[in-house]
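Researcher: Please generate the 3D structure of the following complex. Treat every line as part of one assembly.
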Amino acid sequence: MSAKNSVNISFSVNGENFDDVTVPTRQHLADYLRSQGLTGTHLGCEQGACGACTIEMDGVAVRSCLVLASQANGSSITTVEGFDDEVMQKVKNNFLKHNAFQCGFCSPGMLMTTKEIISSKKKLSRDEIRSEISGNYCRCTGYQSIVDAIEETINEIN
Amino acid sequence: MDDIKVNQNPKLGSMDRPNSYIGRSLPRENAKKHLEGGGQFVDDLVLPRMLHVAFLRSPFAHAEIKSINVEEAKKSPGVFDVYTAKEIDEYCTPWVGTLGHLGEMRSPEQTPLAKKIARWQGEPIAVVIANNRAQAEDALELIEVDWEEKDAQVDMETALDDNAVVIHPELGSNLFWTRTVNQGDVNQAFETSHAVVQTTLDFARHTGVTLESRGIVADWNKSEGKITIYHNGQAPHMMQHIIAKHLEVNEGLVRIVSRDVGGSFGIKVHVYPDEMAVAAISKKLGRPIKFIADRLESFTTDIHARCHKISGKLGVDKEGKILAMEINDLSGIGPFSMYPRTSAIETNQVLNLSGAPYVIPNYKAVGTVVFQNKTPMCQYRAVGHPIAVAITEALIDKAANKIDIGLSEIRKKNFIPDNAYPNKTPSGVPLEDLSHEASMDKLLTMMNIQDIEKEKIANLDKNVLCGYGVISMCEVTNPSPLFYGVGGAHISSQDGASIRLEGSGAIHLSSSITEQGQGTEAIMKQIAADQLGVSMDSVRVTLGDTDATPYGGGTWASRGAGIGGEAVLKAARILKDNILDIAAAIMQTDKNSLDVENNTVIRKNGGEGITLQQLAETVYYRGHELPKGTNPELLATASFLIEGIPFVFTNSAMGCKVSIDQDTGIIKIDKFWAVEDCGTQINPKLVEEQIRGGVIQGIGGALFEECVYDDQGNMQNATMADYLVPMAYEMPDIIVDHVTTNSGRSIIGAKGAGEAGTGGAPAVIMNAVNNALKHHGTEVLSQPITPEKILRALGKI
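Model: Done. Output below.
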């Protein structure tokens, strides 16, 4: 690949530094992360509609299929592999308890969206939770168990 | 999860004993990996020297390939080679999607890549093999095809007309298959009926939209003459046979591995041309080849479902007793019948299942299945059920309205009584162990229809209309060999389980049933631990590997728990018996005085026992200590098969309440109730989640989902931004309850529960919508029931 087709960037993923790595200019961030073995980030539609690839970039939930890898330069990224703080442990426990996933393909994105919802510390109604996760597609559960898990987590942390 | 106890099956023993796990809503500990990003999906797999492919697909619904030039594409950076049908056909024989047991089916040979003619938009024509997918896609643009577009036969309703475009001239017409069922004399019964009602319903095409798309990695190992295929399918042993047959490889040298699968719903149980091409390319090149469908490929090449137009007629007497039912169903399946299950089964199920909950002495059903230039259509979750249930329940509501009796009352008058099984569907299919009466009674208690009626009446002249519906249905589960095997398909209806006690005292279980998120692994563990008397965490499970599991059918037609679960139960009982034999020999006592609890062989009358670890260590490492002649067998394998009947049916009753905004046409589902009788529930929470997920998929078909085509056969909405799927905000909470009638066909008594929701929701929603619209003298008879259709029905647009 010629030089103009790639760019060197530095950023961190789950606390691990990626220093001066070469990425194809046209590669989206999800493909780059997956190419590094961080396969917890899933691709469902590659056009920002399904939410499966949602990750955290500098504290904000983003669709990693709509971000070029080169745009990650200087950023701090968290993926599902890095969701291990106390609050996310609670979230994961409640997802397990309520069976808030079946095949697990949507779960990384759904957990990321949940992380953003609960970080606001707001008490949300079930309808509000449904609205917040309405950008994440799940074909298996029918969403009720996901709402149950998020609702219980919100109650626990507030 | 609540620890609900629902095990009412005396054959399974008391629930008040240690290690009693069947009937408990235990969490799926094995699935934690998905919350850590640790799943192993096909696209996560990277093999040394692996190449990637991208397919050139027909942009036209029907076109002749006058010539194809791949030379420029071959020179594109990173490209290894480019193949057309000529190269692939040397490594893969053609197939035909017909079966022998349902009368004449006519479908032509199909090859991985189209040769002369492309017959649907999306059909693969050529394939680029490159170092990565992006480079393969770049090269696609350099392939030159001289196309001659032909007229396309898009509309199924004109497919048999004299001037139709005949898609396969050698067949003479676009007819794939037809069947007529005729029980009694419907014409005479209609003549003597007090009231006769009729309707015609349309069901658009929709598709599975599994979040993980189809994917395959094929790895031909030249040195062993063996091919390993990592595949996100549902039926590994079926694929093993298919790959062996068409790649002409010894079947024993084909290994299919299905690890985590990101949703399947029937989409991933079929044989796809692009996947066969990938296997052929791997054999040709001796290298691992990966193909992961992108979303456009999913929409235009995953099988579509439904696509029916069905007319029905129902005759009742003065009291509302059904005297006769007649249906006529037309379905369009694309240009080929899918292999190996055929695209006849959905229509066949419509004919089998219409009217199934009811006593209908005279029944006639005609099904016609035609070819058209659209994506192939085949079996998807709740095969045929939405059509059969919707036509039956729509006619029953019409009859109730005509003779002015209640919606639940007319159903109760006509149910096959709960005490009248074994019985038969109106089409003559055997039925056993069902509970329509009890299930409807339970549903009515949950719904409180009087209150809904009051609300409805109060809203009659308001802007937001209120309506409700109730339905009953039968769900096909646990099929026997009479489903596919009898027709010549190498699809096992038997499943096996193998359980061993290991040297550490741990239990290893393998099963031919596969996991796509339903909870297969969890329920297998529950059954094994329950029956052996060990803790859940001492059992680990292997699924989805033809080299490592017993032979069997896999997961489809809601068969995992009822067939695969019974095999686990039987194997666990054999292993326990062996353990007790060995323990009796070691402990010098009568076997009947022993039992296994908490991973220990105990003396029922007290006294010291031995742990399973001690027992295993004795057998494996110090066998000389065993009394002479002791059978050291600590591996047990068992199989199970449904015999004598085609299916084990499950029944459900469903209700819903909807609101319709007359300004926007938007339908809101206020409440949804489901009562399911799937016999023994191994894990009630998982059963309920199957019902809920199924209902939501049914709501998708009823209200949102449609593969929209223009009249040239171009799919217009093949992206996830344009094709509407149910998202969280529009979906209701679903209240689920159960009636339990165990299947008499097995010890475990479990029937299936995976598809009723999808089969019943479209009917009950349509009935509720038309219940709301009735006051305005209008109705909507086509699905999806979009706001536009509502507004048209109300005369607003």
